[in-house]
Amino acid sequence: MSDLELAARVGRVERVARRERVFALSALVLLLATAQAPSASAPLVVNGPSGGGATLSASGLAVRDTAGRVRTSVGLDADGYPSLDLSDGAGRLRESMYLLHDRPVLRLFDTAGKRRAEMFLASDTQNGEFVIRDATEVLRLAVFQGAKGLPEFSLFGSDAVARAYIATDDDGPYLVMKDAHAVTRVVAGQYTDGKFGFEVRDAAGTSVWSRP
Amino acid sequence: MSETAVDLAGRLGRLERGMRRDRLILFSVLVLALATAQAPGVPSGATPVVIRDAAGGSATLTSRGVTVRDSAGKVRVAVGLDDQGRPGIDLGDATGQLRESMYLLNEFPVLRQFDSAGKRRAEIRLDTSNDGELLINDQNEKLRLALFRTTKGDPQLGLYGSDEKLRAYFATDDVSPYLVMRDSGGTNRVYAGGYTDGSIGLDIRSSANAVIWKAP
Fold it and tell me: Is B124 in the A-facing interface, judged by CB distances under 8 Å?
């Protein structure tokens, strides 16, 4: 092979190498341009044959009934709270388990949307509470750990004022019953002086009978 | 070596270097492509489906359930089967701490609420007899209040001291209800309601458990 032919062959190989370099660099540029952080993606929708469906979005999963109403929703709600929401056939929220400002809450709603029963941790003490409310959302019954950490069972009138409660500290329990004016009328259990007994008071709060 | 041969040798050397460089570039492209490869958007077999929003939040559907992460990447909701195969739903706060969980624990349903320190503070569940109960614990996870059914089946409200010992309970059987109050030593000090002999009354007892007053 002459030097001339050899030079021609080397020249061809050089051209091929330059072309392939361009291809490789182009591929690299394309990859760098597209290999960024994953971008927003479209929700995944699964439709049932009768019209219902489930939608998985970045905020969670929503399940619709055949009427198109969301009946179950789990994920981050519109306020960004993690939650599980269950709704009735009319689309009304009836049960919700969620974190309200990072505070665990379980709420049960009536058909009017009123909170009727709930279990939660208090926002200040993180003590547990279970409460029952009436149709006007007035508190009527509660079991909880109070601000001082004492466990208590309380009953309330329709005015949301306590009528009776039984609580205990480490020394002993006490039961208190009040009239409609919030005057204590019956006390049973341990008194503040450490004694145990019963006491009945009149409407003015004066003791009228006590034992022992 | 002739001048042409020297020139060709130089060109060949450059060509070899260029091809080595090109090979390196191609290898880098391959590595980068493998490192940034993503799952396809359409579900396929065992591949998890990841849905992302523009803020960085995401939901991931796997064969075990759905996990929702906030824009900080913290798991806030997980529903499905947990790592021990229990069905449930977990809600986490902004720090990723588990705060509320509803699941089947050894096949018994339970809903638990945790404080920010991770302590169980309130829960509702079925016990091993399948009776419902509601429990409130203090910050040390000591039981302080319970609504439940006793082993005899009687419904009962129990109040406990910080030592987790019963201080008062209010319960009923089919005959009559009864309220019992105890001191820190565990001695009954106040009794009201039905006695075991069928009578109903009130009594107060001393710290030695001696009746000091009774009516009727």
Answer: yes
